[in-house]
């Protein structure tokens, strides 16, 4: 995030309160799991590691959308909205556990991913069987645990809201979880199809993945949840979507740039990790379109090789940069951001909270991690 983002996310103690709520959830889960077996402590340790240090952007977007649409922080409803923010963070943790398995990622936020941690423990303890499979299985189960807890936290947090607010919010939460799961499949599907033969189709699929897997759950759905819990009308929710979806696309396009060119000290992942994972992003599609046949074949052949060395990554970064694709993606981010804030102007929001919401929204596309 930019240097201003932490202060924005800390306003009205949103991040602190969401962190406190997550700590309470994990303490409760640790007690429950210990009641089943003392051997479960490493699961909760890995769960805590995944949740530690997050920016809480989704929780903040939800909270400030609630405030901007008329939510009163002096009422008990605030505790419920904080709980919904915690549910969003638990859902994100579930998605990340599973995403790291599917992408075969080695690190997350600068530390080994859960499946690598459990595989290493298996090796260190000289246990029987396949250590890599043990690690994968543990990470999948961690994702399932976090998903179940996300549902539990959401239901508890919204129990006190009137049905006219809780009903639309529940519809958003349910649809969000379905879309992310389908988006993960579409991402996998796109990566096994013939590549580079129809670049228009490749870009269309990449944009579909962006919307289903990231844009909606990262930005649009948190905004809709906050608005719905504040009692926003169906028309207001529709206007909120017109703001949130293009902003969410811009957010993910920024993430795609960071996945290729980001500084590992701020992203917590190795430089060019998306290239090793073979991500077929709009950035890579635009680069492929600009290259000649030989360069396109070279880039396509290298993309997705997990053994790519630092020099090879640097060479691919240079090819993508010289293609003009980075400038095209920056321009697209700008266009989508302008579209989003054109829609933002039509929202009927309270001035102070609305300004905070706008500032946080802008920070999502101006980040470095």
Automatic annotation (TrEMBL):
GO biological-process terms attached to the record: isoprenoid biosynthetic process
Membrane spanning residue stretches: none
A GO term, aspect molecular function: metal ion binding
Source domain of life: Bacteria
Matching InterPro entries: Isoprenoid_synthase_dom_sf, Polyprenyl_synt, Polyprenyl_synt_CS
Keywords, alphabetical: Magnesium, Metal-binding, Transferase
Cofactor(s) in the UniProt record: Mg(2+)
Family: Belongs to the FPP/GGPP synthase family.
Protein name stated in the entry: Polyprenyl synthetase family protein
Organism from which the protein derives: Sanguibacter suaedae
């Amino acid at each position: 995030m930019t240097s201003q983002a932490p202060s924005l996310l800390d306003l009205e103690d949103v991040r602190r309160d969401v962190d406190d709520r997550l700590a309470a959830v994990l303490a409760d889960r640790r007690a429950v799991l210990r009641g089943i077996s003392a051997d479960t402590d490493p699961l909760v340790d890995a769960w805590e590691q995944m949740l530690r240090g997050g920016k809480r952007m989704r929780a903040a977007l939800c909270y400030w959308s609630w405030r901007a649409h008329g939510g009163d922080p002096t009422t008990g409803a605030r505790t419920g909205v904080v709980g919904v923010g915690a549910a969003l963070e638990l859902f994100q943790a579930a998605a990340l556990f599973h995403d790291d398995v599917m992408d075969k990622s080695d690190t997350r936020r600068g530390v080994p991913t859960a499946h690598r941690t459990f595989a290493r423990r298996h090796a260190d303890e000289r246990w029987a069987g396949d250590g890599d499979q043990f690690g994968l299985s543990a990470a999948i189960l961690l994702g399932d645990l976090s998903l179940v807890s996300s549902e539990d936290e959401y239901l508890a947090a919204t129990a006190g809201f009137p049905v006219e607010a809780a009903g639309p919010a529940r519809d958003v939460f349910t649809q969000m979880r379905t879309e992310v799961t389908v988006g993960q499949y579409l991402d996998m599907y796109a990566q096994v199809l013939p590549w580079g033969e129809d670049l228009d189709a490749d870009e269309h699929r990449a944009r579909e993945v962006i919307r289903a897997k990231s844009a909606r759950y990262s930005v649009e759905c948190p905004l809709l949840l906050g608005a719905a819990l504040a009692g926003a009308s169906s028309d207001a929710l529709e206007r909120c979507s017109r703001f949130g979806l293009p902003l969410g696309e811009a957010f993910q396009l920024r993430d795609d740039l960071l996945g290729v060119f980001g500084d590992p000290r701020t992203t917590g992942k190795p430089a060019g990790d998306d290239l090793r994972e073979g991500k077929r992003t709009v950035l890579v599609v635009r680069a492929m379109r600009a290259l000649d046949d030989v360069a396109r074949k070279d880039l396509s052949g290298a993309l997705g090789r997990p053994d790519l060395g630092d020099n090879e990554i640097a060479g691919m970064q240079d090819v993508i940069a010289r293609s003009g694709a980075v400038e095209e993606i920056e321009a697209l981010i700008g266009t989508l951001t302008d579209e989003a804030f054109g829609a933002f102007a039509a929202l009927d929001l309270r001035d102070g909270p609305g300004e905070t919401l706008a500032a946080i929204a802008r920070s999502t596309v101006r980040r470095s991690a």
